[in-house]
Inverse folding.
């Protein structure tokens, strides 16, 4: 029995990739374990968006290599965005790493490789248990994944519908799996890559150009996951709303419509969109199916100055962005809206930053994910622009933005107090309370029993802080799917 552990950095596309591979490994009777020390196979899914994440990755890989000293049959793999362009460096730096596989490569090939790896690993682990020795002839460094798969024989073939793997969910509690009860949710990649080439972003280089998966396969996968208990399905793409079915030309709003028409009680979320592809039709579909598609939209603005937006190659102006926010609020006045902001982009002057501050005052986002700009290799900004905003200026601007947004968020959150919301109960927090989320994706902290986890329930909101609401259940029994 092989135990595996995933360490996932970065965005929800990475979470979905890790979950897909984890489900695949479970079909091979492997166990998902909670710590690196218990694992025979560790896969690190990496993020290249920020330099800091990359530095953290290298220190983590160093720790894993230490574990391997006491467990020589341990296999370590690195996948995702950093793996796309730092393969050689990682192999050179970490002798102990078994495979590095980039985000824009075909994960079906990786699955075939993992199928073989698991079989070999079982033998190596067993022999190590029996003899205390790792035989080099079995414990080979199969670093060239494509070659290994090409040479075969592959010990495993995934059961597939079209080109998307359909994974069987394993019953909770199987083997040594000891995870606490949590919300049953699924993350489904509906497309990958990006054609937009924003000046600061490394994604088009690490994940390649846009590829959308067939619409019917996605709809089938959602139906499959909901039938297997998923209460929340998140459709994921680097540019999710530029989705286009290759065969029919049908676009993202139609995909949402079809998913929303499926049987069962579940919520559909979607990340990450680009403002350029936000359409009236999209907001109409959400408004028409709001029991199924929650009124929560992540709407990444990045900067409030047209001059900086132009430098960033974002393809919209602040006026166009606000017009779109207007379309959304006209249809769903209570929509929850979050955004991303980058502070200190090359060339950002004090007056540009003031325009960003003015934008958050006018739009009043529910929350803002904000970051200091840091250059990423390959991008237009790193090749052609000087990182000319001093670090202390970036930090001062970022602090000012975050401080003001905390105040705005607290003011905006006050509107929730006294309201009753349907929530999905996610898990028990370390402090003993339950964490639930409204359809608008707002966190609610609430007292309750474990039986409520992974179910829909209703809460009355008692108080609001800048990050969480607190609430109380207004009916103790679960709301069954049939009653909703
Ligand atoms: S739209 Fe821009 S920020 Fe988003 S993934 Fe594409 S290049 Fe990156």
């Amino acid at each position: 029995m092989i135990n595996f552990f995933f360490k996932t950095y970065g965005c929800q596309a990475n979470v979905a990739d890790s979950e897909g591979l984890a489900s695949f490994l479970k079909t091979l009777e492997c166990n998902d374990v909670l710590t690196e020390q218990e694992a025979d196979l560790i896969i690190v899914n990496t993020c290249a968006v920020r330099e800091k994440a990359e530095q953290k990755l290298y220190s983590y890989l160093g720790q894993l290599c230490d574990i391997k000293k006491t467990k020589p049959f341990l296999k370590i793999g690195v996948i995702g965005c950093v793996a796309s362009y730092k393969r050689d460096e990682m192999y050179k730096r970490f002798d102990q790493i078994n495979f590095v596989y980039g985000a824009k490569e075909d994960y079906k090939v990786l699955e075939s490789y993992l199928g073989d790896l698991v079989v070999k690993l079982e033998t190596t682990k067993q022999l190590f248990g029996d003899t205390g020795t790792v035989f080099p002839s079995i414990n080979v460094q199969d670093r060239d994944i494509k070659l290994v798969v090409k040479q075969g024989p592959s010990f495993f073939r995934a059961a597939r519908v079209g080109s998307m793997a359909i994974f069987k969910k394993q019953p909770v509690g199987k083997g040594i799996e000891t995870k606490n009860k949590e919300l049953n949710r699924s993350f489904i990649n509906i497309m990958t890559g990006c054609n937009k080439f924003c000046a600061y972003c490394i994604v088009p280089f690490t994940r390649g150009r846009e590829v959308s998966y067939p619409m019917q396969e996605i709809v089938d996968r959602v139906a499959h996951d909901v039938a297997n208990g998923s209460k929340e399905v998140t459709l994921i793409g680097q540019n999710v709303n530029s989705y286009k079915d290759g065969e029919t030309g049908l676009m993202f709003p139609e995909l949402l419509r079809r998913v929303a028409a499926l049987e069962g009680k579940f919520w559909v979320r979607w990340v990450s969109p680009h403002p350029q592809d936000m359409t009236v039709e999209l907001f109409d579909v959400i408004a028409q199916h709001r029991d199924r598609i929650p009124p929560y939209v992540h709407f990444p603005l990045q900067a409030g100055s047209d001059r900086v937006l132009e430098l960033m190659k974002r393809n919209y102006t602040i006026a166009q962005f606000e017009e779109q926010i207007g379309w959304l609020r006209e249809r769903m006045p209570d929509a929850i809206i979050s955004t991303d902001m980058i502070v200190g982009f090359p060339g950002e002057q004090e007056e540009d930053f003031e325009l960003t501050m003015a934008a958050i005052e006018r739009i009043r986002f529910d929350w803002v994910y904000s970051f200091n700009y840091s250059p990423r290799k390959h991008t237009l900004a790193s090749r052609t622009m000087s990182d000319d905003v001093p670090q202390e200026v970036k930090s001062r601007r970022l602090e000012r933005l975050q401080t003001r947004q905390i105040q705005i968020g607290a003011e905006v959150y006050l509107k929730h107090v006294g309201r009753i919301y349907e929530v999905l109960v996610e898990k028990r927090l370390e402090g003993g309370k339950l964490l639930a989320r409204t359809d608008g994706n707002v966190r609610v902290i609430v007292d309750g029993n474990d039986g409520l986890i992974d179910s829909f329930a209703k809460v009355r909101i008692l108080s609001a802080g800048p990050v969480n609401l607190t609430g109380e259940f207004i009916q103790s029994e679960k709301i069954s799917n049939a009653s909703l």
Notes: The two ends are 41 Å apart (CA to CA). The CA atoms of residues 397 and 403 lie 10 Å apart. The pocket of iron/sulfur cluster is lined by residues 194, 196-198, 201, 203-204, 238-239, 274 (CB under 6 Å). Residues 107-131 form the longest helix (25 residues).
